[in-house]
Amino acid sequence: MLQEKTMVNDALADEKTELTFYANAISECANPQLRSTIQQIRNNCETSQYELFQLAQSKGYYKPAQQANDSEVQQVKSQLQG
């Protein structure tokens, strides 16, 4: 039987894969109604992914990287805007 940690991490990985799929589908969709529908589905998927992330983090299953300081954030912003 799978441990809860494994199940949560698997679900998180699945959500990330789905989000990539939806982003690709949205960027290639010419039909405005279909595009809007896929965007709504993606939004629900993002909400679900964030809830799973919060659960994993609260139980110690997921440790995000250390937060960047202001200088590092500014450096990345300038690189992306350049």
Structure characterization notes:
With 82 residues, this protein is an all-alpha fold. Helices cover 78% and strands 0% of the residues. The protein has three helices and no strands. The protein has helices spanning 4-28, 32-58, 70-81. The radius of gyration is 17 Å and the shape is flat.
Strand content: under 5%
Largest sheet properties: none
Shape: flat
The low-pLDDT segments are: none
Keywords for this entry:
82 residues, flat
Quick take:
This protein has 82 residues and is an all-alpha fold. Helices cover 78% and strands 0% of the residues.
SSE blueprint and pairings:
Blueprint: H1 4-28, H2 32-58, H3 70-81
